[in-house]
Design a protein that fits this description.
mainly alpha
Length: 142
């Protein structure tokens, strides 16, 4: 799994972490992880499967980080976000070192959203729903 797992989380490492995760997961299955909004339903499904396994969060750490990187990368590619290293106040608030900044300047925490889905498992914590209701992303013209 290489150096990505040895480094601390930072904004420059998130795109490669997402790509590594997609390569690893799709090598074993035909999951359509294509960085689309629709693929976030697959992320919800994968997280729900991890939850049902009853494995402690720490044992799923790398998978959850990969899923969080993937969700963030969907925001980068589809919603105009950019990966950012969080300042000390935001690190304390989000409990993460990195996040994404939307075109309107709002900061979101995709890694934390994945952890919430894993820990709570509520349909309200759906990553697909998160994207659809995301503030700060450009809206499609009708």
């Amino acid at each position: 799994m290489g150096e990505l797992h040895e480094r601390t989380l930072d904004a420059t490492g998130m795109r490669p972490r997402a790509a590594e995760f997609v390569a690893r997961v799709t090598a074993r299955s035909r999951l359509p992880l294509d960085y689309s909004e629709r693929s976030l339903r697959i992320v919800d499904f994968l997280i729900d499967g991890l939850r049902k396994g009853g494995v402690p969060r720490e044992r799923n750490r790398e998978t959850l980080l990969g899923l969080g990187a993937y969700v963030g990368e969907v925001l980068v590619r589809r919603a105009g976000a950019v990966w950012v290293d969080l300042d000390a106040d935001r690190r304390a608030y989000f409990g993460q070192a990195v996040g994404v900044r939307m075109p309107d300047g709002r900061i979101w925490n995709p890694l934390g959203k994945v952890l919430n889905r894993y820990e709570v498992g509520s349909p309200r914590d759906s990553l697909h729903l998160f994207y659809l209701t995301l503030h700060g992303r450009p809206r499609r013209a009708v």
